[in-house]
Amino acid sequence: MKASNHIQIIYTQRPLQEPYSGGEIEFRFEQPPKKGQCFYTEPIDTGMGAGDHWLHFFFIDQMGTDEERAARRLVWGDVQVFNRSSYIPALPAVSLGAVMDSQTGHFQLGVQMKEDVAVPALRIGWRARREALLSEKEQEKKRARQFYITNAPKKMKPGMIYFFETNLPEEERFRVRWQVLGEQAGQIDEHGKYTAPDHPGLFEVEARIEGTDLRSSVFVMVASL
């Protein structure tokens, strides 16, 4: 619990099943806050260790002004959108912001009042989800779906030169290795520069990501145009 500037901040952790964690933060106002005031929590541990976790926040309203006043409501997003609906939350208008430290798995929540506040407390719930870490095999499968030769020609003349390309981003740390499959199928260099053979036929050109089993190939028709 943190107390300062006429406010108490109470933290409650809620047990959730992996890969989720969550809790509640209650701001108790000893004096009514004014429009523009800001309040910040201490660093809150998600309990999931280091990583780029996803954070979601919602308001907890137990004083709604509709016919079910005592009902516990969870309000996501901007509470002001309900001002003209049949359900008007008994919640102040606030802006939320959070800073996440991926090295520790801790986050800090900031709250700014958008209007003068008359309620004695503000309850905010939070949920965190661990970002899934792909295994090396899963990463290779993902790259395989994203790796292909982008510019296969429909037809080439015998002896014609053509530059093949892939969709592999320039910043990708893996190198592309090129080869032609079969005998007398032409030649290709390390940059994808292909020289067709001097005779007609159907030939296969392959691109492979160095150090992996990921590959993509296209067939090239060589004939007199």
Architecture overview:
The chain has 225 residues and is mainly beta. The chain folds into two domains: 2-129, Immunoglobulin-like (Sandwich), CATH 2.60.40; 136-222, Cadherins (Immunoglobulin-like, Sandwich), CATH 2.60.40.60. Helix content is 5%, strand content 41%. The chain is built from one helix and 16 strands. It has one helix at residues 136-146; strands spanning 2-4, 7-14, 20-29, 38-40, 44-45, 54-61, 73-75, 94-101, 106-113, 121-129, 161-163, 176-181, 187-188, 193-195, 201-209, 215-222. Strands 1-2-3-10-6-7 form a six-stranded antiparallel beta sheet, with no helix packed on it. Strands 4, 5, 8 and 9 form a four-stranded antiparallel beta sheet that branches. The chain has a three-stranded antiparallel beta sheet with strand order 11-14-13, with no helix packed on it. A hairpin with a 2-residue loop joins strand 1 (2-4) and strand 2 (7-14). It is elongated.
Q: Return the CATH topology of the largest domain.
A: Immunoglobulin-like
Percent of sequence in beta strands: 35-45%
- Count the helices. How many? 1
Main sheet strand line-up: 1-2-3-10-6-7
Low-confidence stretches: 66-70
The secondary-structure class comes to mainly beta
Helix content: under 10%
Q: Which CATH-level-2 architecture of the largest domain?
A: Sandwich
> Cα-atom Rg, whole angstroms?
30 Å
* Largest sheet, strands/sense/barrel: 6 strands, antiparallel
Report the strand count.
Answer: 16
- How would you spell out the order of helices and strands? EEEEEEEEEEHEEEEEE
Mean of residue pLDDT values: 84
Number of domains in the coordinates?
2
Please write the CATH class name of the largest domain: Mainly Beta
Tell the overall outline. elongated
Q: How far is the N terminus from the C terminus?
A: 80 Å
